[in-house]
Write a structure and sequence with these properties.
The complex is a heterodimer of chains A (14) and B (257). Chain A is an all-beta fold and 14 residues long. Chain A has no helices and one strand. Helix content of chain B is 15%, strand content 46%. Chain B is built from four helices and 19 strands. In chain B, α1 runs antiparallel to α2 and α3 packs antiparallel against α4. The chains are: A mainly beta (14), B mainly beta (257).
C-alpha cells in the first residue's frame, strides 16, 4: 500500500 | 482603494472554475504587481498557487497591499453571471467587508454589479522553494486531461515515470492495468501540440488520480500544461495564463511504505 504524503511534509510556513 | 479592470473577463471565470472544487475558501492577496492566491485543499494533499500580474489588466489600481478572504464557491456563482465577452472589474475599499464584481457587456449597454461578502480566513502562507526538477514535461493540456480521465476509469493512482524513452502514465485496478507512453514529439505544425521532455534524471512517482483530474479543470486556461517532477518534492502541474500569470497545482506523492 502507498502512504499519501501531504504538502506540509514538504513546504513550511513562511 | 482597489480597482482592477480585466477586459478578457472570461479568464477570471475560467480561473474560478479551475480551482473552486479543490479549495473552498482562500485569501486573495492584492499588491501593486498583481494578485495572487495560495491555498491547500482540505486534506492538505494539494496546493493551488494563482498569480495574475497587473500588466494583464487594462486598468489596475491597488493603493496598498491588501488581502481579501473569499468563498470560492460564492465567487464562482457571481462570476457565472458574467458573459464570456464581458469586461470584469473587481472593486474593493480598505476596511470594507465586501468586494464588488462589475460586469460590462462589450457594447457597454448592460452593466451588472455583484457585491459579495468577504470572510476572515486565517491561512498560513507556505514557502515554496524554487527547485531544480529531475524532469519537466510540457505537453498539450487536452492530452493530459484525456490521459488522467482514461486512467481514472481503470485505477485510482497513477505512476508517472520519465525516462529517456519518454513519459509513461501507468495505473492498475480490479479490472486490470493501463500504460500510456508519450514520446518527445517536436515535429508538429503548432508548438502547442508538441510534447517536450526535459530529463535531468529519470524519475518515477505515484499520485492520486482524483487530484490530477481536479487539476485538469484548468485545461481551458492554456493549450499546454507543464509537469515538473523531483522525487523529494510535490509534482507541479502548471497552466500558464497567456501574458498574465499562471495557475500552479502542487500534489504530494504517495510513497511505498
Amino acid at each position: 500500500p502507498c502512504l499519501q504524503r501531504t504538502i506540509l511534509d514538504y513546504f513550511k510556513d513562511d | 482603494m482597489l480597482e482592477l479592470r480585466l477586459v478578457q473577463g472570461s479568464l477570471l471565470k475560467k480561473v474560478l472554475e479551475s480551482i473552486k472544487d479543490l479549495v473552498n475558501d482562500a485569501n486573495f492577496d492584492f499588491s501593486s504587481s498583481g494578485f495572487s492566491l495560495q491555498s491547500m485543499d482540505s486534506s492538505h494533499v494539494a496546493l493551488v498557487a494563482l498569480l495574475l500580474k497587473s500588466e494583464g489588466f487594462e486598468h489596475y489600481r491597488c493603493d496598498r497591499n491588501t488581502s481579501m478572504g473569499m468563498n470560492l464557491g460564492n465567487m464562482s456563482k457571481m462570476l457565472k453571471c458574467a458573459g464570456n465577452d464581458d469586461i470584469i472589474t473587481i472593486k474593493g475599499d480598505d476596511g470594507s467587508d465586501t468586494v464588488t464584481f462589475m460586469f460590462e457587456s462589450p457594447t457597454q449597454d448592460k452593466i451588472a454589479d455583484f457585491e459579495m461578502k468577504l470572510m476572515d480566513i486565517d491561512s498560513e502562507h507556505l514557502g515554496i522553494p524554487e527547485a531544480e526538477y529531475h524532469a519537466i514535461v510540457k505537453m498539450p493540456s487536452a492530452e493530459f486531461a484525456r490521459i488522467c480521465k482514461d486512467l481514472a476509469s481503470i485505477g485510482d493512482t497513477v505512476v508517472i515515470s520519465v525516462t529517456k524513452e519518454g513519459v509513461k502514465f501507468s495505473t492498475r485496478g480490479d479490472i486490470g492495468t493501463a500504460n500510456i507512453v508519450l514520446r518527445q514529439n517536436t515535429t508538429v505544425d503548432k508548438p502547442e501540440d508538441a510534447t517536450v521532455i526535459e530529463m535531468n534524471e529519470p524519475v518515477s512517482m505515484t499520485f492520486a488520480l482524483r487530484y490530477m483530474n481536479s487539476f485538469t479543470k484548468a485545461t481551458p486556461l492554456s493549450n499546454t500544461v507543464t509537469i515538473s517532477m523531483s522525487p523529494d518534492l510535490p509534482v507541479v502541474v502548471e497552466y500558464k495564463i497567456a501574458e498574465m500569470g499562471y495557475v500552479r497545482f502542487y500534489l504530494a506523492p504517495k510513497m511505498e511504505e
